[in-house]
Amino acid sequence: MIVLVTGARSGFGLLTAVSAARAGHVVYAGLRDVSTADDLMRAAGDLTVHPVQLDVTVDEERKAVVARILAEHGRLDALVNNAGIAMAGPLEEVAEADWRRTFEVNVFGLWELTRLVIPSMREHGDGCIVNVSSMAGRMATPCLGVYAATKHAVSGLSEALRHEVRPFGIRTVLIEPGPYKTDIFGRNKRIADGVGDASSPYAPLVGALEALSGKAIDGAGDPQDVADRIVRVLADPSPAFRHTMGPSTVVRRLAKWGLPDGLYELVVRTTIDKAKP
Ligand SMILES: NC(=O)c1ccc[n+]([C@@H]2O[C@H](COP(=O)([O-])OP(=O)(O)OC[C@H]3O[C@@H](n4cnc5c(N)ncnc54)[C@H](OP(=O)(O)O)[C@@H]3O)[C@@H](O)[C@H]2O)c1
Question: Could you count the other beta carbons within 10 Å of the beta carbon of residue 266?
Fold first, then answer.
């Protein structure tokens, strides 16, 4: 298969690009800045992975990559929309520019790239679009509302897309990881300006969420599991739509589905209150 993976500098994207190459696919690995391909190339070793300049928010770069792949192979069989950023902070304290940037990367970049690959997949009557959402696309936690809003958008558009493009032989799949140890919690951690100020009315909430997210990061999973799942999905002629995976995701999913809304809210509220400093 000819596969394009976005956000391949680190984390799920890097591991998916390398694992897909190991599985025998021709892999184009999109990087927001192609000069940062060192870790990717080191991880690829003897495997062939093609690093390509692809900031998913830049229209010319999206078009150039898709045009190059179609010129070189005449087809693009799979798109893994992995590139994404998080944004932490109470909704009121996240600046408009940060709201917009998070939507530009996680939603509009993802969608505009997807729009570009559908025609060729339709022409070949075959294709696979894998969208990396999050558990935050199913349930929102305080101080991650902007991120959750983008991932809910990804989940919603993917569910509609699955039905719209299925008649053309295109499979749409949603990956919904819980916490995994990647650069999203380190080098790429994004916190809204001013968050953590003791004078903020949200200071106790922020303190509680910091304590809870510290615990979640300590128990975070191995991102290779997510990459392996994505590579399995690529080879599956009829993959399930949702792939929820990661520590505590089953319990959280069952709680959200199984409990009445009011009781679920009470569980969340009690957990946060207990963690308040
Ligand atoms: N790790 C988790 O716990 C977790 C859980 C649920 C969902 N996810 C989702 O998984 C995906 C991958 O994240 P990760 O955990 O692997 O974190 P990561 O290591 O920070 O990887 C994110 C990747 O996205 C790239 N990226 C950011 N902005 C971009 C842009 N405008 N254009 C192209 N690439 C861009 C980053 O490149 P640069 O570093 O060069 O900016 C990086 O390669 C994201 O969609 C994230 O929301 C992660």
Answer: 12
Cβ contacts of residue 229 below 8 Å, gap of 6+? 175, 243, 245
**Would residue 218 count as lying in a domain?**
yes
Give the integer Cα–Cα distance in Å for 255 and 100. 31
Q: Give the position of tokens 């696979």.
A: 128
What is 37-65 written as a DSSP string? -HHHHHHHTTS-EEEEE--TT-HHHHHHH
Cβ 173 vs Cβ 233: under 8 Å: yes
12 closest CA partner among 147, 142, 182: 182
- Can you tell me which residue has the tokens 């998916």? 16
Q: Which of 10, 14, 100 to mutate to test the pocket of ligand 1 (most atoms within 8 A of CB)?
A: 10
State the distance from the centre of ligand 1 to the C-alpha of 182, rounded, in angstroms.
8
pLDDT, tens digit (0-9, with 9 covering 90-100), for 84-118: 999 999 999 999 999 999 999 999 999 999 999 99
CATH number, domain containing residue 79: 3.40.50.720
What amino acid is encoded at 13 in this protein? G
Examine residue 266 and state whether it is found in any structural domain, yes or no. no
- pLDDT tens digits, 184-224: 999 999 999 888 899 999 999 999 998 888 888 889 999 99
Angle ∠(102,28,17) on CA atoms, nearest 5: 75
Domain-located, residue 272: no
Expressed as residue numbers, the domain containing 20 is: 2-247
Helix (H) or strand (E) holding 173: strand 170-177
Domain count, the chain: 1
Per the domain annotation, does 12 fall within a domain? yes
Give the Å distance between the CA of 197 and the centre of ligand 1.
27
DSSP label of 234: H
